[in-house]
Each structure stands twice: as C-alpha cells, then as structure tokens.
What does this fold into?
Amino acid sequence: MTLAQYPQPILFRAQPMRPGDVPARLDQAEMLTREGAVMLAWGGLPLTITPPPGVTLTPLPGAQESAEEPGLMLDADGHVANQSWKKRRAAALLALFAGMRPRLIVLDGAPSLFRFELRPLLEMARRRDPAPAVRVWPEGAVIGLELAGLVG
It folds into this structure.
C-alpha cells in the first residue's frame, strides 16, 4: 500500500484478537506514522506499553477471541460480547471518527465478526465530502462480502 498520497491524519482501527497479535499492530501503527499523525482506535485488550511516537491511542471497549472457541468474540472481561456491548463499541468508534477528519482509514483486516461497527463506520465515511480513502492492511486481507463494496 502506498500511503504518500494521503495527508494526515490517519485513522487506524486495530483489533488484535490474541495477545500475540499486539506487537504486529503496534508495528503497523508505527509504520503509518511515516505518513503523518496516526489516531489508533485500539480494540484489543488494554495496552501495557506506550504506543510509538506519533501515535495517539484511543481505546475502544476491548475484544478478544475465546481460546476455547476460536471465532467467538469475548469482551475485555472474558464474557461473550452481547448486543449492548456491541452498541457501546460501535458508538465509541463512530464518535471517534465524527470528531476527526481523517484522509485515510486503515483497517487491520475487516473480519465479518466486526461488521456491527465497520459497516456504520464505512457508511459514515462514504457520506463525508471529501470521503476518506479506506484501505485494509495487510493489503489483500480477506473481508466479508457485506463489507467488500464499502472498502476502496
């Protein structure tokens, strides 16, 4: 992905599902800072380390994957993510987006599991003038068909 064409700021929505995913997401955020200021919408469990310079961290209600049932989304307390939690989580991401004017939104993959927050975010982004570019990282990551038409 070539990012030089996008002026700052960048909204990077990161969702590490397992603790082992955290370093890669922070490395991605650091790489994005080469292109400008990064707002990191962090959907994983609370970070115990400081984000890289140039990255502003905004935590979302944390999500993780069940170790016993892969594909099952749990909240930060280890409970199955229910509708109330999903509404709070989506509202937090939309409020963050509403308060900024990113030229680029980067999603660290767009699993169908998170369509409850990604679809409203991408629809809101498409209504902006000018609309921010939307990219999935890593490039070529598989996204659900229900989101494919919303990602450029």
Observations:
- Confidence is low (pLDDT under 50) at residues 1-7.
